[in-house]
Specification:
- The complex is a heterodimer of chains A (116) and B (112).
- Chain A has 116 residues and is an all-beta fold.
- In chain A, 0% of the residues lie in helices and 48% in strands.
- In chain A, the strands form 2 sheets. In chain A, strands 2, 4, 5, 6, 9, 10 and 11 form a 7-stranded mixed beta sheet that branches. In chain A, strands 1-3-8-7 form a 4-stranded antiparallel beta sheet, with no helix packed on it.
- In chain A, strand 7 and strand 8 form a beta hairpin.
- At the A-B interface, strand 4, strand 5, strand 9 and strand 10 of A face strand 4 and strand 8 of B.
């Protein structure tokens, strides 16, 4: 399968602990996005990378959140000192960086985080 | 990106056509209309997009009103596998590579 993969698929952690999620995009895709989705809501944008450069960050991305894409391939999203409000599905998506109107994003299956 | 309005939920019978409406009265001239859907326990997937003309692909058809203030996603024969949340999203072509702004979407239920 050459789609977007995310690891782990599920994570249960205690409040105050740090967690890190990994996303492997489709190999030829330059752009990588992180979204967060809470129950019953649509996904909300967190941040996006063009190769290794982090080009945009949402106001939702507090200073407890950090994302990296060190070599322009896989990306990690770390949440420090987790809070119960961080419980959500964290989705990763990638897209090619080509001129045109489509800019279709391909999503991974997500990592479901539960903070107890 | 401009805001869209969709019904919270719709029901359909299997093998019948489904018309999913979307209102976007504040759409600008450079906004493309994109549709994504999210099957249960999966990430969203692209369905179709258009600017002014109606569009067809293997998954669905997109009908766009002449004034572009509304659009309709058409599934020609709904199957049980089409049960999902469908999101209508406007994307400014000048920022087309950037994030998607999802609303609440329409939850489509398909009855056998």
């Amino acid at each position: 399968d050459t789609g977007v993969s995310q690891d782990p698929r599920h994570k249960i952690t205690k409040r105050g602990q740090n967690v890190t999620f990994r996303c492997d995009p489709i190999s030829e895709h330059n752009r990588l996005y992180w979204y967060r989705q809470t129950l019953g809501q649509g996904p909300e944008f967190l941040t996006y990378f063009q190769n290794e450069a982090q080009l945009e960050k949402s106001r939702l991305l507090s200073d407890r959140f950090s994302a990296e894409r060190p070599k322009g391939s896989f990306s990690t999203l770390e949440i420090q000192r987790t809070e119960q409000g961080d419980s959500a599905m964290y989705l990763c998506a990638s897209s090619p960086s080509v001129r045109g109107t489509r800019y279709e994003q391909y999503f991974g299956p997500g990592t479901r985080l539960t903070v107890t | 990106d401009a805001k869209t309005t969709q019904p919270n939920s719709m029901e359909s019978n299997e093998e019948e056509p489904v018309h999913l409406p979307c209102n976007h009265s504040t759409i600008s001239g450079t906004d493309y209309i994109h549709w994504y859907r999210q099957l249960p326990s999966q990430g969203p997937e692209y369905v179709i997009h258009g600017l002014t003309s109606n569009v067809n692909n293997r998954m669905a058809s997109l009908a766009i009103a002449e004034d572009r203030k509304s659009s309709t996603l058409i599934l020609h024969r709904a199957t049980l596998r089409d049960a999902a949340v469908y999101y209508c999203i406007l994307r400014d072509v000048q920022n087309a590579g950037n994030m998607l702004t999802f609303g609440g979407g329409t939850r489509l239920m398909v009855k056998p």
